[in-house]
Structures are given as C-alpha cells and as structure tokens.
TrEMBL record:
It catalyses: [thioredoxin]-dithiol + NADP(+) = [thioredoxin]-disulfide + NADPH + H(+). This is FAD-binding protein. GO terms for molecular function: thioredoxin-disulfide reductase (NADPH) activity. PANTHER family: THIOREDOXIN REDUCTASE 1-RELATED-RELATED. It comes from Agromyces kandeliae.
Length: 333
C-alpha cells in the first residue's frame, strides 16, 4: 500500500502558505473530537491550540464514561496521541489574525480562510472551526479565585460527589442558584445558601427551608483557607463565619469568541452574555465558518463538548463532500 502524504506545512515563520481542508482553532475536547471525525474521513486538518483549557485547574474530571476521576489534561494528551494515525497536525500557539479570502484558480472552489499564527506561519483552509471555549469570571470575593478548582467548584454533577456528607456553602450570583443548592442537598445534609442580596421567591425560600438548607442573607466577603491552603470556610460582612469544606458558585461564562466576531458571525444576547449563533450542525452565519463546544454554549460537561465537536466535524466533512461533488461536476464541463 502506498504511503499517505501529509499536506505541506511551513517549516519556519514567514515560509510558504499551507492549505488544509479544515483549520481548527482550539484543541480541547470539542476541537480534538472534531479533528478525529475529520481525520477519519481522510481530511487534512490543522489544530491550533493555545494550551489553556477551561478545566485546567481541576485535578480530576467526573461523569465522563470510561475516564471518571482522571485528569482532564490526560484526556487531551490521549486525544492528541490518537490523532497521529490520521492526517491531522497539532500546533501549539495562538492565532494572531484570521480573514476570509477569495479562492484563486489553483485553490479550492468556494469560501476560504487565511489563518496567521503568532509565529508568523500562514495557513489557508477550506473550512474554519472555532472551538476556543470560554473563561469563567468569578464573583469578586477575596480568596475565591485562589481556591478555584480545589475547594471552590461550579457543577454539582462534576464535583458534588467528592464533597458528599461534607459542609457545603453555595454563594449565589442570582436567585436561580437556589436550584444549585437543592442539587447539592441531594449529596449533603449540611448546606448553606448565601443569597448575596438576591431576592428569593416565596416558593424558592420555602423549598430551601423544607429541605433544611440554611439561607444566609449576610453577604460573603471572603473565602479563607488554613496555612496549608486547604479551604476552611467563608467570612461574612459583619465578621461572622461559616465553616465549609466546599464552596459552590455560578461564575459568568464569557466565550473566547474574538475570532468569530472578527469574521462577523451573527450573535444574540442570552443570559446577559452575547453568544455567536450556530445551527444544529455548528454552522455560523458566515459561510464556511463553524463553531463548537463552550465557545457557543456554557454547558460545562466534557461529554457534551466532545459530542458537539464530533457532530460538527461530521457536518463539516459532509459540507466539503458537497463542494467536492460540485467541483467534480464543474471539472467535467
């Protein structure tokens, strides 16, 4: 069997432009899952990854079938290793610029994108997938960020089991976090809900009271730890304290969607944040431009991000097949 060739790639900054079927920006669960589907469809793919996954502070991930209680970084390393058998290249770095370009007579028909890396390398792509994730903006409470990924968590499904039957404090960003406290009450009988001034409906307060969840209306001003850095509790505005083994919050999820906006993808405000709109296949309003994972949805589940990337990767391949058919028909005249 003849050996399969990889597409030519630049070897130094400023060298010749390489052309790929798909460039994927973001090498997290969504981006690598899309690359896997595309690579298995014999597409040439470049993944550009800045190395800052959202769940990097977490020592373990949970609720991921076959990978429960393992490092999220180990999952990504395993994913990269799996891609080596396909025509997929992974570059570490950032995208400095991106633009839509017109295809010339020697290139692929249809839309194309030019991607410039911070190294100076330039790449052309028939399709562009952005899977750059999001960042979590934590409430401005002293000590909270220091405990993020250790004693401070977001998701009851991802981290709740590890704090079962322990002392849990839920710090609200809004009245909706009362439901977060109810989910955690399923795991522990010792839960305090810190309202932070949020106005609870009578039904919400009644539900908290009925299940033995303490409602604390004094504001939390600090999360404090012991000398070894282990979470000890929360401090209130009047100096009062609650001892806690875990603190759960609901940070504001802000998508890393600068590249999508530069290409003028349509967005809509949802939950106080502008999100780029995609259809069920990950298509944006810009022809040939796709997005997958947390950059277009704030769900924190690794399996959801993997599913989003996998489905979008398959959709991109189908789109390219349609274009290949048109090109073949045109070539026959």
């Amino acid at each position: 069997m003849p050996r399969r060739r990889r597409r030519p790639r630049p070897r130094r900054p400023g060298s010749a432009v390489a052309t790929w079927d798909v460039v994927i920006v973001g090498g997290g669960s969504a981006g690598l899952s899309a690359a896997l589907m595309l690579g298995r469809s014999r597409r040439s793919v470049l993944v550009v990854d800045g190395g800052r996954p959202r769940n990097a502070p977490a020592r373990h991930m949970h609720g991921v079938l076959g990978r429960d209680h393992t490092s999220p970084l180990d999952l990504l390393a395993a994913g990269r290793a799996e891609l080596t058998r396909y025509d997929v290249a992974v570059e570490s770095g950032e995208v400095a610029d991106v633009a839509g370009v017109e295809a010339d007579a020697s290139g692929p028909a249809g839309p194309a994108f030019e991607v410039v890396l911070d190294s100076g390398e330039r790449h052309l792509a028939r399709r562009l997938l952005v899977a750059t994730g999001l960042r979590d903006e934590l409430p401005d409470i002293a000590g909270l960020a220091d405990q993020w990924g250790r004693g401070v968590a977001l998701c009851p499904y991802c981290e709740g089991w590890e704090f079962r039957d322990r002392r849990i404090a839920v710090i609200a960003s809004s009245a909706a976090n009362a439901h977060q406290a109810q989910l955690l009450r399923q795991l522990s009988a010792d839960v305090v809900f810190c309202s932070q001034g949020a106005v609870l409906t009578p039904a919400a307060r009644s539900g908290l009271d009925a299940r033995g969840i303490v409602v604390e209306d004094r504001r939390v001003v600090e999360v404090f730890a012991d000398d070894g850095g282990r979470l000890r509790g929360i401090r209130l505005e009047d100096g009062g304290e609650w001892e806690a083994d875990a603190v759960f919050v609901a940070p504001k999820a802000v998508p890393h969607d600068d590249l999508l906006r530069r290409l003028r993808a349509r967005s809509m405000r949802q939950g106080g944040v502008d999100h780029v709109l995609v259809d069920e296949d990950g298509r944006t309003s810009v022809r040939g431009l796709y997005a997958a994972g947390n950059v277009v949805g704030s769900r924190s589940s690794v399996p959801w991000a993997m599913s989003s990337g996998s489905l979008t990767g398959a959709a991109i391949n189908a789109d390219l097949v349609d274009e290949d058919i048109r090109n073949a028909v045109d070539a026959r005249g």
